[in-house]
Amino acid sequence: MQFNKVLDDVKLYEAGKPIELVVREYGVDEKDIIKLASNENPYGTSPKVTKKIQDIAKNMFMYPDDSMFELKEALANKFNVQSSNIIVGSGSDQVIEFAIHAKCNKNSKLLMSNITFAMYEIYGKQTGATIIRTKDDEHNLEQFSKLYKEHKPDMVFLCLPNNPLGECLDTKDVYEFLEEVDKETLVVVDGAYQEYAAFKDEKKKIVVDELISKFPNVIYLGTFSKAYALGGMRVGYGIAKKQIIQNLYKLRAPFNITTLSLAAAIEALKDEEFVIKCIDENFKEMKRYEEFALDKGFSFIKSYTNFITLKLEDKFISSEVAQNLLQRGIIVRDLTSYGVNAIRITIGSNEQNTRVFKQLEEVLKNLK
Amino acid sequence: MQFNKVLDDVKLYEAGKPIELVVREYGVDEKDIIKLASNENPYGTSPKVTKKIQDIAKNMFMYPDDSMFELKEALANKFNVQSSNIIVGSGSDQVIEFAIHAKCNKNSKLLMSNITFAMYEIYGKQTGATIIRTKDDEHNLEQFSKLYKEHKPDMVFLCLPNNPLGECLDTKDVYEFLEEVDKETLVVVDGAYQEYAAFKDEKKKIVVDELISKFPNVIYLGTFSKAYALGGMRVGYGIAKKQIIQNLYKLRAPFNITTLSLAAAIEALKDEEFVIKCIDENFKEMKRYEEFALDKGFSFIKSYTNFITLKLEDKFISSEVAQNLLQRGIIVRDLTSYGVNAIRITIGSNEQNTRVFKQLEEVLKNLK
Fold first, then answer.
1. B91 to chain A: which residues are within 8 Å by CB?
2. How many CA atoms lie within 13 A of A156 on its CB side?
3. Residue B107 CB coordination number (10 Å)
4. Nearest to B238 by CA among B254, B253, B219
């Protein structure tokens, strides 16, 4: 059967390997597996959120509140915007999907950094749009600016901080670039890891209400999957001018967020203390990775997130390192498919990281 | 900002009003509200499923198993197909979305019954496709056949049994019609309420592996939202030949089902006893609605689902009846927007239905 031709060119996203799969495929005992491949919060879900879900689990038979009244009010309050400025997606992923599908078609162009979140391209290809990438791996605004003028793309993607590399542009530089961009171009400012960047360095912090009031063509994305520790519950959001949100809403299916996910997100917003504690721990533990890298002679990208990207230079092959770690029950992300010889490791808990260093040390010794 | 022109013509789905909204807007006490507007299972979630979710709630921070290995194995086993014949969506809704977006564009035509599930049209319009409807409200295969030959649509939708009317075609008649359909036409057989129809009348039962092996151009849809009592968890599925599934997969975002939803669906499949008990109760209670309707001189559509559609003829105006019930805390679905003067009521529990009859009786008296 024939389907739309544009699909021929669509590649599937490669998800971090789940623990169940490593148990099945490598016969490693489940309790010995450490998954540091998907930038989940290693401190687990907030106990307050877990309690809430246990209390209301029996309500699963009821459709969710499709207006998402309570969650949108809570987000509006947090970001100092109106509910009408917000759209909630099944992960911020889904808001990216809405934005691209609402704005683009096969005549469109999308501008993004050379190495950035894979879904921008995948959703773009679904519409048949052309992908334009800067030359440098990390975000380079001069290159963005030059390519913007050359191609006049319909959408621009800034991942702040950037997944999977971890770097983050300064907000003032981003503002300067945004001044140059035509108001018909939809700019996605992807803040999936913003909580980490804002904590580490004030210069990286994005003030969302300021951003969207200065730039009516920008949509800001946030997620509950990282700092808020709800990766499994699929809740993210987009914040923009009402006119943008209304158009994205036309592609939102009813009930796109589950009853329990809505409740979990609402509860998670009430426990900011937990979030701050997790982020604080994250950067303490990250120092250990930086020291490990220096010790082994790897370079690393200064990270404003909950992961670190180790460049293996010409010393090791990243796919081999990742595969060997996998056999030892440690799941990390090999970045070969992104075109770099590097591994991305989520910063785990203190105990997890100690085990990672030990295993990685042995793997490197064996591969030498 | 300009978005894709096709969106101008897209209408939003009108969800059944949630209880929270009735509390907010009408000041009715939450415990006095009966929601019979979204065909949820009035017997609640299976206690075994609730227990499972409570046990694993703390795992919410982990991304779901994107391969959905366990759920797909369980479904493959239930339907006697392979995992590769299955795609899981955030409700069967999302599988409809995948199918329409994979197959259609602005040159496409979609054939469906005059009154049927609203999302077929909404997703169709998102691609700019043209909607063709039969003349009769209920499914009429002669009309389908005639319009099929006339328009050669890219997709055909058969809702078996039909939402929001409740009628159901005989499977042998469906097979006869499918014989006439070109193998390049994708036919959606929507079995969201099949468990009810198959229980009530063997002639309505669809044997899925037989269906897709006889007709390689058919995709069968099922859901956990109705008989399996997981409306809030958003899990549905499509079953078809591998080639169709592979194309739909290109539009599936990673992690489209939450960690808890996957677990709930897997557990729900283990408790078929609960499902059968709910369906049995459903049809016992439906008899009371049929008697009520006869008593009041309304006609009703013989229903193979967990709801009943009462036609108010020229006696009452459905929007008024629904609005008056709402003020009394009883939420039903007014079908005015579908072009019929009727209300659709989900068959509630015995106690709920008794209250509905009492309130409805009073409303009708007041409106006379």
1. 253, 255
2. 29
3. 10
4. B219
- B interface test, pick of A3, A51, A52 with most B CB neighbours within 10 Å: A3
Q: What is the pTM of this model?
A: 0.96
| B301 φ/ψ angles, rounded to the nearest 5 degrees | -90, 130
Among residues B256, B69, B71, B76, the alpha carbon closest in space to that of A20 is found at B69
Cβ–Cβ gap B255/A91 under 8 Å: yes
Q: Does B233 touch chain A (CB under 8 A)?
A: yes
CA–CA gap between residue B20 and residue B144 (Å, rounded):
40
List of chain B residues whose C-beta atoms are within 8 Å of the C-beta of residue A18: 63-67
ipTM of the complex: 0.95
> Which of B45, B243, B254 is opposite residue A58, by nearest beta carbon?
B45
**Dist CA A226 CA A195 (whole Å):** 9
Q: Are A257 and A235 in contact (CB under 8 A)?
A: yes
Q: How far is A183 from chain B (nearest CA, A)?
A: 7
What pairing do the DSSP bridges indicate for beta strands A236-239 and A155-159? Answer: unpaired
CA–CA separation, B341 vs A81, rounded Å? Answer: 41
The torsion defined by the Cα of B344, B345, B346 and B350, in degrees rounded to 10, comes to -160
- Strand pairing category for A86-89 and A236-239: antiparallel
Task: Kindly give, in sequence order, each residue whose CB lies less than 8 Å from that of residue B261, ignoring residues fewer than 6 positions away.
Answer: A258, A260, B64, B230, B233, B234, B235
Cα–Cα nearest to B91, from B204, B13, B167: B13
What structural domains and CATH numbers belong to chain A?
5-44+273-367 (3.90.1150.10), 47-271 (3.40.640.10)
User: What would the two tokens of residue A358 be?
Assistant: 């030990």
Burial class of residue B8, CB neighbours in 10 A (0-12, 13-18, 19+):
exposed
CB contact under 8 Å between B256 and A90, yes or no, is: yes
For residue A359, the tally of other CB atoms under 10 A from its CB is: 17
CB atoms within 10 A of CB A228: 28
Site of tokens 């059968």: B276
Contact list, A93 vs chain B (CB under 8 Å): 253-255
Cβ atoms B118, B13 nearer than 8 A: yes
- Find the closest chain B residue to A106 by CA distance: B4
Which residue of B24, B187, B255, B282 is the best one to mutate when testing the A interface, meaning the one whose CB has the most A CBs within 10 A? Answer: B255
Residue of B41, B48, B100, B250 to mutate, testing the A interface (most A Cβ within 10 Å of its Cβ): B250
For each of chain B's 368 residues, which pLDDT tens digit applies? 999 998 988 888 777 677 777 888 888 888 889 999 999 999 999 999 999 999 999 999 999 999 999 999 999 999 999 999 999 999 999 999 999 999 999 999 999 999 999 999 999 999 999 999 999 999 999 999 999 999 999 999 999 999 999 999 999 999 999 999 999 999 999 999 999 999 999 999 999 999 999 999 999 999 999 999 999 999 999 999 999 999 999 999 999 999 999 999 999 999 999 999 999 999 999 999 999 999 998 899 999 999 999 999 888 999 999 999 999 999 999 999 999 999 999 999 999 999 999 999 999 999 98
Range 188-227 of A in CB contact (< 8 A) with B: 216-217, 225
Is B12 close to A91, i.e. CB distance below 8 A? no
Structure tokens at A359: 């295993």
CA dihedral (A281, A359, A14, A167) positive or negative: positive
What does DSSP say about strands B307-311 and B299-300: parallel, antiparallel, or unpaired?
antiparallel
Least CB–CB distance from A63: residue in B38, B216, B254: B38
Burial class (CB in 10 A: 0-12, 13-18, 19+), B165: buried
Residue A142 contacts by C-beta under 8 Å, 6 or more apart in sequence? none
| Pairwise CB contact (< 8 Å): B3 & A261 | no
